[in-house]
Design brief:
The complex is a heterodimer of chains A (775) and B (104). Chain A is an alpha/beta fold. In chain A, 32% of the residues lie in helices and 18% in strands. In chain A, helix 6 packs across helix 16. The two termini of chain A are 39 Å apart. Chain B is built from four helices and four strands; from the N terminus they run H-H-E-H-E-E-H-E. A four-stranded antiparallel beta sheet of chain B has the order 2-3-1-4. Helix content of chain B is 34%, strand content 30%. Chain B has a single domain, classed as 2-Layer Sandwich (Alpha-Beta Plaits). Chain B has 104 residues and is an alpha+beta fold. Chain B is globular. The termini of chain B are far apart. Classes of the chains: A alpha/beta (775), B alpha+beta (104). Chains A and B meet through helix 1, helix 2 and helix 9 of A and helix 1, strand 1, strand 3 and strand 4 of B.
Chain lengths: 775, 104
């Protein structure tokens, strides 16, 4: 890392400074020590500052990376970025250090006789291509698959989709965003017919009230949360934290309301009940712009292999909906949810007040939910009933977790059913994609294959024989992990892993490819607010490391697809982006040209006639609106959004006599996902060196468990021992425990459940039953 | 709202570092210094006037990072006494402590 030229003492002093800054940043989200950042920069150097989106979360902060002598040595927030306005969180400030861990993968490794042997990149790529050919010949095209991530750049995901869907002809393309954002996607599609938020971060500067639905923003989106806190200082806005556990967000909020796991469904319905009962419905908005639907219920939880579900939407009337909500009076819901009727009415009153602009924010809480699509629908219901949508400050806003979950997975469409524009099931969409990809339309299979959980189940069954995993670490993140780890090790499976460090996922690989990381290559990310951001290659990758994009292109050529993968090595990113833009060449989704991205701190789509669109579906701002009304929800054929009748249903596995606690899992501010990068940054690793289990203090006292004591957690999938955390960073409600998943040495997902939302197929990492004992 | 519990948490996290042989040389420690309301500038000034102290104020929050670097344990104790007399200092929470040899 960049302190290597200084002596040990100055390094330690810098560590002390960084430790304090990290502590401060976790207590005061968005805190700035920008002066210090600059003061500590190498003296006398010729620092060249280049802009990039941050490598880590989905907020998409603009950063400036200081380059000196071919090395990235410093980071500061980009004051020109409208996302973060010069702020950075602790991960962002230290992001360049993630590239300089001692055990960076620099050479391809091939497993031979149980041992990894260094080889050349050419030989490794040859092997991958021949293995793919052999697998397709022996087991058919649907026996090969690729599993990527929301950390894929846009070009990575685009060439992966083109190769697998367009050329090979299999829809075995998935990404880890299935594990975090799929419910948001299906929520958007079912309510509006088109994906991604209608609003933008500027809503924060206009809203009067923020309701955070199961969203620990202070740790997961600290820079955005600091913008909320800033607005409170300036304008006295209210922040309501609605969650199952007390967190730093709860501490900083004006009001913290706790609900029992899964019962957010009931509370959201109760808010709608109150809105209707009190006459707070924006009648003209609802009459002009909304329909009412109901769907199937008692859908199950996807626990069995080859589980299938298809919803059957059915139109209902407002009166039907009103009658349905009679089961959700605040008094009835209080008994289910543990939220007082008074608190439900308190939240409803803010949503219902025509003089208050309300922003709802959520991320993993409602998404990683066995009824995740429904939860997304229900939050939209509240905003649609009150007409508080698509206007500055009135904004239901689904946040993302990864830097390009939106840009790559959702927009490029690296999910089994998706194409860059549209879905594989639609003939016109297939024809459109095939033309741009220069492949016969018959190549694109009209049937989706496997969503992520099912893809790993197919690997276990032997339906999939070859899997290429890029930029993600499923051997830490998959729920009910042991099954899928064992699956990957079975005879007759061939696994390729492209990554920057050794991980539990590279442990199961037959071939490990060293990848170029972030600014070691050129690319683009797309963030939560539809902002596409470009970054140039600033430094050389180490050893033989190669971008994931070029790895895929090399293999595609070896498979015989030279015509489709015509790209020149020096200009391929530009060529790919230019080709990709053709898929979205319309007023609803046009992407800004590359030269615009290069000149600006990102640009929001739809980018029409030289302008980004901040608020979609609002004719004042969105040129795609064409119905002559103030609002046009053009994702639906009739231009109307849908208010869904969605009931409360229990979770797949709830506490019982044998397993009496709820187990919830999640993240911490110091670490990015599985920690494979941030745990190699000394200051972050030291600040959060290992995982733990948070207990409620009363539960801990009853079991005579003190902070640091060993605690055994047992579920129907297995057991794990973790140190206790009592009255520390987060405090779970009684009979609930929380465990972060960043620590590969304490794999909490070995004991989680692989239930998922039947519509989105996103697993519920927030709820299963667990037994808790002092170890 | 109180942040005290988090200070305790961070001290816990770095407790192992504090357990490094305490008689070793040249302790380097970092703290978060919280000023009394409206006294941030006064606190910056007071801390900056002390030897062995580096002060890094946050630009947008009422908190300062304080780094102390002393030669000996005795010198550190004297510095601590001086810190305790600063009237604009509301709370001093240690974040990390390192002891290093005098020479590399």
């Amino acid at each position: 890392m960049y302190t290597s030229t200084t002596n040990r003492r100055s390094f330690i002093k810098k560590m002390a400074v960084l430790s304090a800054m990290t502590a401060a940043a976790t207590m005061f989200p968005g805190i700035m020590f920008a002066g210090e950042q600059e003061k500590n920069l190498p003296k006398g150097g010729n620092l060249d500052w280049k802009k990039a989106p941050c490598r880590f979360c989905g907020v998409g902060c603009g950063v400036l990376v200081g380059i000196e002598n071919g090395k990235a040595v410093a980071v500061k927030g980009d004051p020109k970025s409208p996302v973060n306005k010069g702020l950075c969180c602790v991960k962002g400030y230290h992001s360049v250090m993630a590239m300089y861990g001692k055990d960076r993968l620099t050479k391809p490794l091939v497993k031979k006789n149980g041992k990894y042997v260094e080889t050349s990149m050419k030989e490794a790529l040859d092997l991958i291509a021949s293995k793919m050919k052999e697998t397709i010949k022996d087991h058919g095209k649907d026996s090969v698959s690729i599993y990527g991530s929301g950390q894929w750049t846009i070009p990575d995901g685009y060439v992966a989709s083109k190769l697998f869907k367009g050329c090979i002809g299999t829809n075995n393309v998935e990404a880890n965003a299935r594990l975090c954002m799929a419910s948001a996607v299906t929520g958007f599609l079912t309510s509006f017919g088109i994906d991604e938020p209608m609003g933008c971060y500027e809503d924060i500067d206009h809203a009067d009230v923020f309701v955070l639905w199961g969203n620990n923003m202070a740790e997961m989106h600290p820079v955005l949360f600091s913008r909320l806190l800033d607005q409170r200082l300036k304008r006295g806005v209210k922040i309501i934290d609605f969650a199952t556990r007390t967190t730093r967000t709860s501490m900083a909020a004006d009001k913290s309301i706790l609900f029992l796991p899964q019962t957010d469904l009931a509370v959201a319905n109760a808010i709608c009940y109150e809105i209707i009962k009190n006459g707070w419905v924006n009648k003209s908005f609802v009459e002009k712009h909304c329909n009412f639907n109901k769907g199937l219920t008692n859908m199950g939880y996807g626990l069995e292999d080859k589980y299938k579900f298809k919803d059957k939407p059915e139109k209902i009337s407002f009166q039907d909906y009103k009658k349905f909500l009679e089961d959700y009076t605040p008094e009835k819901v209080e008994k289910i949810s543990g939220v007082s009727a008074k608190d439900i009415k308190y939240m409803a009153a803010y949503y219902g007040d025509p003089n208050k602009k309300v922003m709802s924010l959520w991320c993993m809480g409602p998404n990683q939910h066995s009824r995740g699509t429904w939860m997304n629908n229900l939050i939209y219901n509240i905003h649609l009933l009150t007409g508080k949508i698509s206007t500055p400050g009135n904004s239901p806003f689904s946040l993302t977790g990864q830097p390009s979950a939106c840009g790559t997975v959702r927009e490029v469409g690296t999910l089994t059913h998706k194409l860059p524009h549209g879905v594989v099931m639609n003939k016109e969409h297939r024809e459109f994609a095939a033309k741009i990809w220069d492949v016969p339309v018959e190549n694109i299979d009209p049937k989706p294959t496997y969503h992520t959980v099912e893809m790993f189940r197919a690997l276990d069954r032997g339906d999939i024989r070859f899997m290429w995993i890029q930029v993600t670490n499923p051997m830490v993140t998959m729920p009910k992990l042991k099954r899928y780890r064992d699956a990957a090790k079975k005879e007759g499976r061939f696994i390729v892993v492209s990554d920057v460090y050794p991980t539990p996922t590279t442990d199961i690989a037959d071939v490990i490819l060293p990848s170029a990381m972030w600014i070691e290559r050129e690319g683009m990310y797309g963030n939560s607010e539809r902002r596409t951001q470009y970054f140039e290659q600033m430094i050389q990758p180490p050893g033989e490391a190669m971008s994931d994009t070029w790895q895929l292109i090399e293999v595609a050529k070896r498979l015989g697809y030279e015509k489709q993968f015509y790209y020149n090595e020096d200009t391929h990113i530009e060529e790919i982006y230019t080709e990709y833009r053709k898929h979205h060449d319309n007023k609803k989704h046009n992407m800004a040209p590359l030269e615009v991205l290069k000149e600006n701190p990102g640009m929001q789509w739809p980018y029409v006639e030289g302008k980004p669109t901040q608020w979609r579906f609002n004719s004042k701002y969105d040129p795609a609106c064409s119905n002559g009304e103030d609002f046009h929800f053009y994702g639906k054929k009739d231009g109307k959004a849908i208010i869904w009748q969605r009931p409360y249903e229990p979770a797949a596995e709830e506490p019982d006599a044998e397993y009496p606690y709820w187990l919830n899992t999640g993240r911490v501010v110091e670490h990015w996902h599985t920690g494979s990068m941030t745990r190699r940054i000394p200051v972050l690793h030291k600040a959060m060196p290992h995982s733990y289990v948070e207990l409620n203090p009363e539960d801990a006292k009853r079991m005579q468990i003190k902070n640091g004591d060993k605690v055994k957690l047992t579920t129907r999938r297995g057991e794990i021992i973790l140190p206790a955390s009592v009255n520390q960073r987060g405090v779970p409600a009684p009979m609930q425990v929380f465990v972060p998943f960043f620590d590969e040495n304490m794999l909490i997902n070995d004991i989680t459940l692989d239930s998922f939302c039947p519509i989105s197929k996103e697993p519920d990492y927030k709820k299963c039953a667990v037994k808790v004992e002092k170890a | 709202m109180s942040y005290d519990k988090y200070h305790v948490s961070y001290i816990d996290i770095f407790i192992n570092l504090l357990k490094i042989k305490y008689h070793y040389f040249m302790p380097i420690k970092s703290y978060l210094a919280h000023p009394h309301d409206g006294k941030k500038e006064e606190l910056i000034q007071a801390l900056s006037n002390l030897n062995h102290c580096d002060v890094i104020p946050a630009e947008n929050k009422d908190v300062l990072v304080l780094i102390t670097e002393t030669e000996t344990k005795a010198e550190e104790d004297i510095l601590k006494q001086k810190l305790e007399t600063i009237s604009s200092l509301k709370l001093l929470a240690m974040v990390s402590g390192f002891n290093t040899p005098k020479k590399n």
